[in-house]
């Protein structure tokens, strides 16, 4: 669903269309066909102009990367025809819960002295993580992050990996303040599963990429349990690492409202554009040096969960760790327990 071309955008359009580069025609067509993009005639020139602008910014970044200015590369992907504003509107959708919301009742993660935090961890290699999914044009990242943490929990307890239903969370947790494709809270998704006494699998309650205003949870097909959830102390990266190291995949949120994040392809992400005001829910699945080129880089591996394998390192990003709570990654971390 593309938003209608507004008057403001039209003005921009008139300004930029003249600048379309004929030399890029072939690449543009290839990109459209690869990603199955089709536009009504009146939108084509505007989308092409947006795409060209993104392409130039990506090339500029990568040139700087070869000169050693950045530790990560960008690449054109399926988001190439979106302006920064559209991207932020359509693909982020995490709402940050106020700490008071849980009335001081939500438990905090505490490192237990008995638990040794490993030097590096990759829960994907241990079978805890389902393949990367695709949220489409719907701000449902919060639901994808929550199912990711719940799937890890089920694997840990039952030894089986079951893909869980985001649509179940979207349709049935509105009462708690979640808004389906228009954003939601990870902790309230856990709260729903706890209060509801379960969640269905992806198989029985498939993802529809849209708001459905009725709940179709089927008690017979319960696929996971959740008895409560824990919050990682806000802003504490050390505690986040300990939680990921000793518990399993942990739900997190980051600031993804920046161009470099949208087109991240590979390497260790660290950008001065990243603030710690978080807006995109992800899943932390590991950390460590884990094959970084420079021995002094520490990374946290995050799954976009929902931006498809075409983004980043097959749907994952390695974020610089231990620097400055980069992109606010430790600000809203939580995980379910059972
Ligand atoms: C939920 O927990 C109960 C008791 O621990 C267990 O018997 C049941 O199999 C669990 N259900 C699922 C779907 O994991
Ligand atoms: C962060 O968490 C670690 C381990 O859980 C703890 O030792 C440390 O005191 C915390 N730091 C702050 C500033 O609260």
Automatic annotation (TrEMBL):
Residues 1-19 form the signal peptide. Transmembrane segments: none annotated. One of its GO terms (biological process) is proteolysis. Keywords: Disulfide bond, Hydrolase, Protease, Signal, Thiol protease, Zymogen. GO terms for molecular function: cysteine-type peptidase activity. It holds the Pfam family Peptidase_C1. Residues 28-87 form the Cathepsin propeptide inhibitor domain. InterPro entries: Papain-like_cys_pep_sf, Pept_cys_AS, Pept_his_AS, Peptidase_C1A, Peptidase_C1A_C, Peptidase_C1A_papain-like, Prot_inhib_I29. Residues 117-337 form the Peptidase C1A papain C-terminal domain. Gene3D superfamilies: Cysteine proteinases. PANTHER family: CYSTEINE PROTEASE FAMILY C1-RELATED. Belongs to the peptidase C1 family. This is Cathepsin L. The lineage of its organism: Eukaryota, Metazoa, Chordata, Craniata, Vertebrata.
């Amino acid at each position: 669903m593309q938003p209608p071309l507004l008057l403001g955008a039209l003005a921009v359009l008139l300004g930029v269309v003249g600048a379309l580069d004929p030399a890029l025609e072939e690449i543009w067509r290839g990109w459209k066909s690869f990603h199955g993009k089709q536009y009504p005639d009146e939108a084509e020139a505007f989308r092409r102009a947006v795409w060209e602008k993104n392409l130039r910014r990506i090339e500029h970044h990568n040139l700087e990367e070869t000169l050693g200015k950045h530790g990560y590369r960008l690449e054109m992907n399926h988001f190439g025809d979106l302006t920064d504003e559209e991207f932020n509107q359509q693909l982020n959708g995490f709402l940050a819960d106020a700490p008071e919301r849980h009335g001081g009742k939500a438990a905090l993660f505490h490192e237990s002295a008995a638990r040794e935090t490993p030097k590096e961890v990759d829960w994907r290699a241990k079978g805890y993580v389902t393949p990367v999914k695709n949220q489409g044009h719907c701000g449902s990242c919060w639901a994808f992050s929550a199912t990711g943490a719940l799937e890890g929990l089920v694997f840990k307890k039952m030894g089986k990996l079951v893909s869980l239903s985001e649509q179940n969370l979207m349709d049935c947790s509105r009462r708690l303040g979640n808004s389906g494709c228009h954003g939601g809270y990870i902790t309230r998704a856990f709260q729903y599963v706890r209060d509801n006494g379960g969640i269905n699998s992806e198989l029985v309650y498939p993802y529809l990429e849209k708001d459905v205003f009725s709940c179709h949870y089927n008690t017979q097909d319960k696929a996971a349990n959740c008895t409560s959830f824990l919050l990682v102390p806000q802003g504490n990266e050390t505690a986040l690492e300990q939680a990921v190291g000793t518990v399993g995949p942990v739900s997190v949120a980051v600031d993804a409202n920046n161009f470099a994040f949208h087109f991240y392809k590979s390497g260790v992400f660290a950008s001065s554009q990243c603030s710690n005001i978080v807006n995109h829910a992800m899943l932390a699945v590991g950390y460590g040096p884990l094959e970084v080129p420079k021995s002094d880089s520490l990374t946290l591996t995050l799954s976009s969960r929902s931006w498809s394998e075409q983004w980043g390192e097959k749907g994952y990003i390695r974020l610089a760790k231990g620097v400055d709570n980069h992109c606010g990654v430790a600000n809203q971390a939580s995980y379910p327990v059972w």
